[in-house]
Amino acid sequence: MLTCLINGTVETRLNSDHRLVAFGDGLFETCLADRRGVRFWNDHLNRLENGLARLGMIWTSEDRDALETEIETVLAHVEGVVVCKLILGRGVQGRGYDFDPDRQRTDRIVQVFPYQAQPWHLQGATLVLSEVQASVNPTLAGLKHMNRLDSVLARQSARSAGAHEALLSRADGRLVEGSMSNLYLKRDGQWLTPDLAEAGVDGIIRRRLLRQTEETIRVADLLRSDLDRAEALMISNSLIGLVPVVSLDGRPLTPPAWDELSRFRTAIGLSSD
Amino acid sequence: MLTCLINGTVETRLNSDHRLVAFGDGLFETCLADRRGVRFWNDHLNRLENGLARLGMIWTSEDRDALETEIETVLAHVEGVVVCKLILGRGVQGRGYDFDPDRQRTDRIVQVFPYQAQPWHLQGATLVLSEVQASVNPTLAGLKHMNRLDSVLARQSARSAGAHEALLSRADGRLVEGSMSNLYLKRDGQWLTPDLAEAGVDGIIRRRLLRQTEETIRVADLLRSDLDRAEALMISNSLIGLVPVVSLDGRPLTPPAWDELSRFRTAIGLSSD
């Protein structure tokens, strides 16, 4: 970690009885950033504020101003591209799940980490289908909350197989996402991405794609069995951008056509070189 | 918090990039304790060690000895009954879901909090059915892991209604548990408790009841609609013991017969007075 501010103070540590530790009672954003600011900041902020409302956390315009000032401060002297991770956690006195909604505060943690682009971000990702299942919960679905054990365990499936990413699905066979990315699957000439109403993270790049490419990518119920007849696959997140998939469970896959990928990247404001 | 040891050192704080904060990558136990030790320690330890194995965490006999020594140390001078909370978190360098399984360590946090028995622990609990759903994930079900946002949100349903506890269920109508307790429901003269193969926490008191009372309590698929025709309800956890339910969603319920409750409490080693 290069820098860390907690509520505006240079501080790396947190009380071990904080609700972020005890329950994962908070939200985060992992952003690509440089001295000029956070890339796609409006999208990140929009998702954060939507999440804060859904978790019933306190968030005022003063909180937002403070967060934006803190981000500006930590980014003022960075060299090149970095990862800026934002964590908003519910701060309350006392032990136990309960809290008084009128006596909570939202703690802000702003962390900066080095960023290293990997060759596979451009050349394409190898995927495996993990046996670890995605957590299903309509109350929490879509949120980038701090309860991420399913991704942690699925990530190990990628590691064991020497792959870049692992896909999570549900007991009923429905595909959800990758451990750190959203998934796109081309079937009968149409790009599709799993519905996230019950599980998964509503990613920034996925949102931009759905918003800015109209019917080119559609939300659908996708099954594990759809992987067998996929014409092409892609994955995305804020750090890797939009990445073609070159193999699944060791079976080579034809990546999407370069001009198609390039068109998507341009449409959502990612450079395609 | 009265006391806190982290890996044996008097220390209350944790790095904000620890995986406990970032992902809830760990397990916990909330135990009733006094100067003589932790009540039902073998059960707590057994559940912890099962969880450590399922999450692929490192745990040696030296780790266990250290944890037991630390518990003994913090309890040596406490007055009366306290809550001893144990947290085991995966410690690893670096950012991101991935970790090298051969280069992880398990960090031990031992916290002591005051304990206050509430009148309702003996007189009976008021319950509501929450609209917040339980997280469904067979890979994680049963574990007392640190991803507890569903309980946090459900707890607010209890608060809004002025009730002691809120029940969580699933989209398909199946009952799972309370936000901080396991559930027992009497139907046609038979005590039943929800199956936890896909969601919920495998509680210590529930385990003891299932083990020590033979067929008196059985595991079953229970639906929200079963609540309407329940003859009686009980809830349990390590801090409240086994507690009769006196109302559900504002509707009075006949609590289980005193001698029945007393028989259960005695069977699992809880005093019934």
From TrEMBL, chains A, B:
Record note on quaternary structure: Homodimer.
Cofactor: pyridoxal 5'-phosphate
Protein name (Swiss-Prot/TrEMBL): Aminodeoxychorismate lyase
Catalytic activity: 4-amino-4-deoxychorismate = 4-aminobenzoate + pyruvate + H(+); L-isoleucine + 2-oxoglutarate = (S)-3-methyl-2-oxopentanoate + L-glutamate; L-leucine + 2-oxoglutarate = 4-methyl-2-oxopentanoate + L-glutamate; L-valine + 2-oxoglutarate = 3-methyl-2-oxobutanoate + L-glutamate
A Pfam entry, by short name: Aminotran_4
Pathway the protein contributes to: Amino-acid biosynthesis; L-isoleucine biosynthesis; L-isoleucine from 2-oxobutanoate: step 4/4; Amino-acid biosynthesis; L-valine biosynthesis; L-valine from pyruvate: step 4/4; Cofactor biosynthesis; tetrahydrofolate biosynthesis; 4-aminobenzoate from chorismate: step 2/2; Amino-acid biosynthesis; L-leucine biosynthesis; L-leucine from 3-methyl-2-oxobutanoate: step 4/4
GO biological process: 4-aminobenzoate biosynthetic process; folic acid biosynthetic process
Gene Ontology MF: a single term: branched-chain-amino-acid transaminase activity
Role summary: Acts on leucine, isoleucine and valine.
Organism: Saccharospirillum salsuginis
EC number: 4.1.3.38
Keywords: Folate biosynthesis, Lyase, Pyridoxal phosphate
